[in-house]
Amino acid sequence: MPTRSRVALAALLFAAACTGSGSLDAAGEVNVFAAASLADAFAEIEKAFEAQAPGVDVRLNIAGSSALREQILAGAPADVFASANRSVMDDVVAAGAANQPQDFVRNSLVIGVPEGNPAGVTSLDDFANAELLLGTCAVGVPCGDAAQRLFDRASITAQLDTTEPDVRALVTKLAAGELDAGIVYQTNTNASAEVDLAYSPDAAEATVTYPIAPLNDASNREAAIAFVNFVFSEDAQRILKRSGFVPLDGAG
Amino acid sequence: MSETRRVRRRPPTVLLVLAAVAVLLFVLPLVGLLSRTPWSRLGELLTSDLVLDALWLSFISSLAAAFISTILGVPLAWVLSRVEFPGRSIVRAIVTLPMVLPPVVGGAALLFALGRRGLVGESLDAVGIVLPFSLAGVILANVFVALPFLIITVEGALRSTDVRFEQAAASLGASRLTVFRRVTLPMIRPSLIAGVVLAWARALGEFGATVTFAGNLQGRTQTLPLAVFLSLESDRDAAVAISLLLVAISLIVLVALRDRWWRS
User: Fold this and answer.
1) What pTM did the predictor assign?
2) What is the C-alpha separation between A26 and A177, in angstroms, rounded?
């Protein structure tokens, strides 16, 4: 009977969608928890990956790396974790939630200013100027910890006006012209037309390395591993490079 | 007779069960919080500079917000309940907007209006007033989210009071302002106090609008909720301890006030 077979087919499709058991490569949903600074690049990588693996639906969860770590450790349904520094990833590994993370890209910290640099900020020394409205990420967030290391290395007591919960919040305030300068990622100044790069410190402390790992409790481990592998592919690395990230094997 | 018997009968099971579920919804997270509380380290955690700074800022900003909300909210509630004017229902809708608006959106809207590059903020900046990243900014964000609670509570009370008392006072020669002060306000006293307390409680817990408009800096704009949020990512024990502190402060104030003035 045509109706019955249609029902059976629907049931079969529904079951397939629910279990997400892969037929060819990987299928089903894969929840990717990615650092706030990866938002734009990973949105593109998601599209490119889904084009290659049509059965997979990538769900991005974007937040500050340390917020994501807390979500993962509290049992959030995560399949992949991409962190903006190694120490946050190390916490996740130490808690037994992931094994053998791999570094996949680098980013550098720069001084970001509103378009046109109205306050005329030119170097890290300007962060000692109490007259200016200055911001970084909060301590505990990768971009905040790295900014603090930069100040320490240059022996600057930063006169900060705000320490934002994640880099996107900081970029928003720079783009709105509310802050005169902030320590953001190179990729932020590339992505936002309203935020200019005023200065890039030439220091090892200004470089952050991003690790990625499939999670041990991943409900869709097959797709998780496929996604992680894809991040190392030429396509994905090209997307990351275009966003302003520095490939690991490249110069810089 | 039949009426008293009906009152003494057992309440319907359905209502009891649903009410119990409602209570559970409040109690369960609280138990979760208590189960994670690092009791042995509590004293040390709650006396850190971070917590004391945030406690002081929360104290100042929530009280200031409740005060400003009262000064501005009571007159608006009176106008809404006693004066007929075109567009009254629109004003009423606008007043409640901050209750449904995500606080982060409220904070962004404040930034667009009162930030350094904002509609009004640009002129303020010209005369040297910068609201974002300041305590004034925190208080402003708090007032924005707290004011509706006061207005709605007070307006509801004003609408349900008997206007004839006011009319009688007026007919005996009292001016409109005197009627308001000597007749209207005393009549709505319990609701007024409830409104002030609700506004204060909302301001105490405020997070989204504050962090968006006023930023986050220890000792200047970092209130308790902001300290909780950021500690969650660096020191979970501290975050739980601060949360417990917030719960304790709110409970103590609400219970104490309820027993003293809020009984009707």
Assistant:
1) 0.81
2) 45
